[in-house]
Amino acid sequence: MKNALLKTVDTIGSTVIGLSAGYLALAMGAGLLELRRQRAKLRSQGDTSYGRPHLGRRDRYHLYVLVPCLNEESVIGTTVGGLMGPRTTVVVVDDGSDDATGAAAEQAAAAAHAVGQQGEVTVLRREPPHARQGKGEALNHAIRVVRERVAARGQDPAQTVVCVMDADGRLSDRALSHVMPLFDDPRVGGVQLGVRIRNRRSNFLTWFQDYQFWAMAAVTQFGRNLTKTVSLGGNGQFTRLSALDSLGERPWSQSLTEDLDLAISLAVRGRRLRTTAHASVDQQGVSDLRRLIRQRTRWYQGHMTAIGRMGEIWRAPRMGHLAALEMFAYLLVPWVLDLPWSLLFQYCLYWFLRSPDVLVLRGRPAAAVNGTRLRLPLNLLAWYLLAFAPALATSWTYLRRDKNVGLPRALLLGHSFVVMNYMSFLCAWRALFRMLRGQTGWTKTTREAEAVGTAAEGVPSAA
Q1: H or E element: which one contains 411?
Q2: Which of 25, 26, 183, 240 lies at 20 to 30 Å from 249 by C-alpha?
Q3: Is the pTM here over 0.85, yes or no?
């Protein structure tokens, strides 16, 4: 009975390990292929500056930028100034702030106009009890105003693009010259940019977030470009207004990850979701472990809750089979990989520490290895490759993505991924317990004050 149980656990463990490694290898490999198709290199945008997204822009689309804000006085001014430009309306949604967020946005707009910068800025103030009901509600309030403006100005919703930015977000220089042409394909409903962490040099946590976003998430997003199912995020997210209109009066849901929910809604209606390797968005990283855990728990809960839409994806008549399969697999990740692996990893580690030969002697008599000088090195090598092989691949990717990272830091961050998995395990289980208790509220991640004009890693922002 005991042996049968151990064999069952061993089989499940091998399956999860195989699925995890296969999913990562497939996603990263597809991303590298897409980079080649776009004639881009891994290092694309690695040393870019941020704050002048309108440079080189030649499209004729109308752009509306929605910036939901709650107590963002410290960062909103630079963001507004950097977003203003021709044929652009910036809509700042002050969602019941206690500070001078709205006034700071208006002052930034006035300063930009004083030096001849184009663009319009509107500040929408939401008051209790309607304020602070979530990011989705703030965006739904803003989109009503956008629709009214578009109708009054006689603009075509199909030729109008809505961008969602965080209050601390900065688009890379010339970003719009790469994003807007993607909407020339009428089937494209949304575009999402890769994310860099602006304050990555602050401490280990901010470096690690940049490693995750730039070396892993961005590259795998390039791979999802092949199936046109790129996941939308809450920062650097572009959608066609007519695509939002097709979702009804309130395109954003009350989900904890309203951006993922929006991506699913667009995809099941046959809209293509794209990204580009030639533009990116930067933002602040969370420098405090407690706040980072709270943020990631919310992300996990939103992702895990989206599992309820899998039937909708599979039955979607306008969604291709490959696209549905990719999105299907993506939604399964926390349930099939993260939660099981959080337990199986401890099981594998226990059995290796108890019997190191288990990795090398599978199916072989102990005498085949006992007495040889290779026994200990082979065991250590087997354990290392099992635990850290993905770290080596992602370390190489991170180093190639940014030449300024350096080999020691890239290797350190790659290997720390195995240790930082414990934070992911914690967040996944916290999210599950919150779901079981019916908890759906969340606390907004607070920003840190920045000097006006601060840009990516010492590169001045010319807003």
Answers
A1: helix 407-436
A2: 183
A3: yes
Q: Rg of the chain's alpha carbons, rounded to an integer?
A: 24
Q: Which residue has the tokens 């089979």?
A: 321
Residue 108 CB partners (closer than 8 Å, separation 6+): 76, 77, 78, 80, 81, 121
Count H helices, E strands: the chain? 15, 10
Return the SS3 of 94. Answer: strand
Question: Tokens at residue 289, please?
Answer: 């472990």
Rounded to 10 degrees, the C-alpha dihedral 423/427/428/434 comes to: 160
HSE-up of residue 163 (Cα within 13 Å, Cβ side): 29
**Residues 399, 408: Cα–Cα separation, whole Å:** 10
Q: What are the φ and ψ backbone dihedral angles of 402, each rounded to 5 degrees?
A: -145, 110
- The 10 Å Cβ neighbour count of residue 35 is 18
Structure tokens of 154? Answer: 């006689």
Collapsed DSSP state (helix, strand, coil) of residue 283: strand
Q: What is the distance between the alpha carbons of residues 448 and 445, in angstroms, rounded to a whole number?
A: 10
Q: Which pLDDT tens digit goes with each residue over 140-153?
A: 999 999 999 999 99
User: Which of 92, 63, 108 lies closest to 453, judged by CA?
Assistant: 108
Distance, in Å, from the CA atom of 9 to the CA atom of 11, rounded to the nearest integer, reads 5
- ∠ CA 209-98-71, nearest 5°, is 20
pLDDT in tens, 175-195: 999 999 999 999 999 999 999
Secondary structure (3-state) at 78:
helix
Q: CB of 281 within 8 A of CB of 170? A: yes
- What angle do the packed helices 339-354 and 407-436 form, to 10 degrees? 120
